[in-house]
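Hi again,

Forgot to attach this to my earlier email, sorry! This is the prediction with pyridoxal-5'-phosphate bound. I've pasted everything inline since the attachment limit keeps bouncing my files.
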Amino acid sequence: MFETLPAPKLDAIIALMQAYAADPRAGKIDLGVGVYRDEDGRTPVMAAVKAAEAQILEAQESKSYLALAGDTAFLKQMEALLLGGAVPSARVAAVGAPGGTSAVRQICELIRSARPDAVIWVSAQTWPNHLPLIRAAGLRAQSYRYLDAKGGGLDREGLFADLEQVSAGDVVLLHGCCHNPTGVDLSAQDWAEMAALLERRGAVPFIDMAYQGFGEGLDADAGGLRHLAARLPELLVAASCSKNFGLYRERVGIAMAIVDPAQRDTLAAALAGLNRQAFAFPPDHGGRVVSTVLGDAALRHQWQTELDAMRQRVQENRRALARALRDATGSDRFAGVGHAQGMFSILPLTADEISALRAGHGVYVLGDGRANMAGLSTRNIAACAAAISAVTR
Ligand SMILES: Cc1ncc(COP(=O)(O)O)c(C=O)c1O
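C-alpha cells for the complex follow:
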C-alpha cells in the first residue's frame, strides 16, 4: 500500500527545532520555534493557569463527553475576550478546536463546504503552516504584498493594490495582531481602510488571532478584529490560547463565524458537524482552564499581570537587540526590529548569512530570517548582535 508514498518534507519550524536540539554547543541561541521564553530560557506554566488547574482537579466530577462545540463557558468567555461586545452574540457561531492550528483548518473546511472555489488571500510572508492548511482543505491560495523589505515596515501601497484584485466571495486572511513572521501590524487607519475595501469588493475577512495580549494589550490587539466584525456582514476567526495562556501542549483554540443572526444557527451546526468529522469533541482541559481564569476576577487579574510581564519582556528584548545591532553594525539596517510587535521579526539577512549564523555561531533563525525575540535574554543579546554583525560584514 505504501510503496509509492512520498516521504513528506519536514516542516521548516520542526526541522529547525530538531537541528537546534542536536547542536552540542553551549552558547547556542534558539530564535526559531514560536514559544515564549523567560530570562532563563524556560516556557513556564503561568501561575494563574496552575491555580485554575488545581481548582479543576478538585471540583471536576466527570470526564464524560461534552458537546461537539466544546464547553459553553469557554466559548462565551472567548467571545468576550476576542470581540469585547463589538457585535451581538446573536451573530456569533463558535466551536472549540484543538489549538489555533485546528481552528484555522476548521474554518478552511467551512469555507470549502460553503464556497469551494473561493480563493484565500494570504500575506506574502505568513505563518509557514497557513498555506499547507489551506491547500489540505482543498482551497486555492493567492498572496498579497505585505512587508516593505527596504524599510522593514508595511508595504501599504502594495497591500491595498493587491487586495483591490479580490473577487466577491473570496476570503482575505489577516493576522489579528503581532503578524507572524514580520511583527508588522496594521494601524487603526489601515484596519478602517481594510474594512472599506473588503466591503466594496464583497470579500470575507478571516482573522487568525494567535497572539492577543502580546502586541499592545488585550483590547488594543483585538481592535482590528472588532472593527471588521462591527462593520462587515461576515467575518471568520481562528484564535489560539497557546501563547497568551501558555497552554501550548493542551491544544486550546476556537473557530468562529460572525454572520447575520438568521444564519447563526446554521453556521453553529456546520462548525459542530465539521468537528464531528475531524476529532468529534475538542479537548476539554485547556479550555476549562481558560474559562476558569477568565471567569474569576482574581485569577483573571493575575493572568493579565503575567501576560503584561511577558509582553514587556519581549518588547524590551526587541529594543535591546535593535540597539545592539545598531552599535555592532554601525548601520540602521536592523532598525525595523525595534519597531515591530509581538514575538517575531524578520531579520533582513540573506540565505547565506542565515546559514552562516547557524553553522558558525549557533544562532538559529528560520530560513526566511524570522527570529523569535522571546528566545533572547540579557545574557545573549550582545552575543547574538555580534554574530549577526560578523555574518553581515
Ligand atoms: C499565526 C499563527 N496562527 C496559528 C498558530 C497555531 O497555534 P496553536 O499552537 O494554538 O495551534 C500559530 C502558532 O504559532 C501562529 O503563529
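The radius of gyration is 21 Å. The pocket of pyridoxal-5'-phosphate is lined by residues 34, 99-101, 104, 127, 175, 180, 208, 210, 240, 242, 248, 253 (CB under 6 Å).

That should be everything now.

G.
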